[in-house]
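Q: Convert this sequence to structure tokens.
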Amino acid sequence: MQNPGAHENTGLQCQLPPEELSYGTTAVHVRQGPSVPVSRSGPAKRDYLTVAVLCYGNLINFMDWFIVPGILLDIQKYFKLSNGDTGLLQTVFILCYMLAAPVFGYLGDRYNRKIILGTGIFFWSGVTLGSSFISELYYWVFFLSRGLVGIGTASYSTIAPTIIADLFEEGKRTTMLSIFYIFIPVGSGLGYVLAAGMADIMDDWHWAFRITPCLGGLALVLLILLVPHTTLRRTAAHRALSISGTIRVAAEKPGVQRTAKTTWCQDVISLAKNWSFVWSSLGLTAMAFVTGALGMWIPLFLYRAQVVQGIVSPCLQESCSSSNSLIFGGITIGSGILGVIAGAEVARRLRKINNKADPLICATSMFISAVCLYIALMVAQVNILSTFIFIALGELFLSVNWAVVTDILLYVVTPRRQSTAIALQILASHLLGDAGSSYLIGIISNAIQAENSHSFQWNFWSMQYSFIVCVFVGIFGGGFFLLTSFYIEEDRKEAERL
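A:
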């Protein structure tokens, strides 16, 4: 079925009720009504343009996420932070992000999503720019600014995928979501590259926070000009009827049944009974834990490994080299693009022969990623090249899951609860995942260092041993996705009936 922006090309002559647009969650359930033919010519050009704008916004979103890890050593020296305090910096960001997500999920299911997205972009871009002018005496203000950026970015991650889901049918939807989620690793990697590059070029890390606000301003302009003010919310009825090329539209007459608007608590209770949603969310939580820890600490871990091997000299007074951040950023971009594309393609092919393909793909990739990460940790002290290779493989298999996990949510949850479901998934995955993983790694590293002599060798070992936690979490994540496979067929059928 076409989106509202393309109605002039469909021949659809009836007015859809306002509930079906972006202002609420009510879905129309039809008993009888006239049959209206609908064009099956596919999505309009404007739909693809909308996706392009949303992808660009997602790119800026995740660039802002990973500016801090890209110049972590410089920030740590500037504000005189310990490993634990440095890890807390990312924790503050994630905590604010995840706590804001349910609020935006509630708003996104009930109010205009374009306005919410635009407000979020403007807010986080402004705060990012302001954080570049903070003095070393006010480190707590820098912590606060990262928390505010987290609130702004929560609006985007919660709402943007639901707009894409409304514009496309299932097969095309998976492809479009894959493209959208490619920009998570691409944006993350570019965040490292931008931060490290600007710090080197300007000889001042503050400039790393002055580029993305300009890019965010462009994203806001494109959103205003090119994204439709409203988008049609697809219900299960829309999807089923559009397959046959006919939509039965119920006019405002007796006999038409509409589901009552549900409260937020009712939505949460319903989602808690959806085991596919619950287990896949826990699997995503494990992914978030591992990616959060890797994203925050890997450049520093590689630096310490190189110091132990004598490849680089310790940066005690001078500015620290950004080469590891640049390399890790490149790895994140390359492995992310390849992983998301491979995951979507493998899922598309295997779904034809196995209805449980999606969770099984996620489980397998999590197990393989955990093994690769363990090997990377073990060889870091003797061979940096091998470490980079296995880190790249670990990130590759983690990236396989990004679009697949979101697609699972979108077909096991009824459309009128999708923004809330995404928001709750963000809350859970970050609360138990990357909100604490970077801080936990820093605390464990500090504790190990405190019990041993202060040396470059123990600086490296403390980080190596603390990273072992991520290996076990990755294995648990694979197990959660396996549990998802036991329920996914039943939950999908239930979502299609609603």
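DSSP finds 18 helices and four strands in the chain.
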